């Protein structure tokens, strides 16, 4: 998934597939999915299905403006995110990860969330995580802007608590040198972490572009914060530190990065883009990655997040689910 960090003036693509801790999971255990792991569906896997063609143009500035002024107008796809619980159930998945940009107008609409929770209950589906973007930079150098970003996240912490989720996923973004952004991110994340702790919600940070895609940098931020409910969400695919029109100009070693982030992980984001003839991810060694995840001692929910173009979103979700089941079986002790 993903869009990069969103703001009124700048919107890049935020993505996210996710493994997160879910104390309220009702997923059934299968031979392919050992008791220590369950499979979830990240909503970004269906971003074209919900948004339609609007993101395909690449005009993220226009997308960002509409998100701030008329967010519901962005929902131009064939299906509505209101029905995500039943859509996930159709894949045999009982845990879902929401993305706040699909519900941007609903941040303060608890009547909507009461109805949404009932849909989840009717389907036997649990919300494990809400991915939050376009709420300001938690690593902003301006303390006023940084605190405003913290406050904007409060509503989504409250929604997560109401829905029975364990976490919200946030971004550690800002401007300045690596050292400056790290220091400011520690301040913003610590402040938000305090509110999250008061509500029983984890604040988890994804490697999501810029400095945050440097595993050593993000691990250093986590070490400095040192809070039990503030952790990481290692994404298998988001290790591009610098991107140009020609593609990624500076990419961090994904296997090194995942290993560095796993000690702080309260979830993992299992990204897929392309598959080979054998059903493996074409550019990532999923077996190697899953061994790193398991050797870290992590246990939780593996979220499907397909973001490729070769398969339809429906086919990509199914292919990712099959791949996760396969590598879990291959690494079962």
Structure, explained:
This protein has 333 residues and is of the alpha/beta class. It has a single domain (3-331), classed as TIM Barrel, CATH 3.20.20.150. Helix content is 38%, strand content 18%. Strands 3, 4, 5, 6, 7, 8, 9, 12, 13 and 14 form a 10-stranded mixed β-sheet that branches. Strands 1-2 form a two-stranded antiparallel sheet. Strands 10-11 form a two-stranded antiparallel sheet. Helix 5 (143-163) packs parallel to helix 6 (178-199), helix 6 crosses helix 7 and helix 9 crosses helix 10 (313-331). The protein is globular and about 50 Å long. The model is unreliable at 1-32 (pLDDT under 50).
Write the layout of secondary structure elements.
Elements: E1 3-6, E2 11-13, E3 19-20, E4 37-42, H1 47-51, H2 60-69, H3 84-90, E5 95-99, H4 110-123, E6 126-131, H5 143-163, E7 167-170, H6 178-199, E8 202-206, H7 215-225, E9 230-233, E10 240-244, E11 247-251, H8 254-261, E12 267-268, E13 270-272, H9 286-295, E14 300-306, H10 313-331
Parallel strand pairs: 4-5, 4-14, 5-6, 6-7, 7-8, 8-9, 13-14
Antiparallel strand pairs: 1-2, 3-12, 3-14, 10-11
Helix pairs in contact: 5-6, 6-7, 7-8, 9-10
Brief description of this entry?
The protein is α/β, with parallel strands linked by helices and 333 residues long.
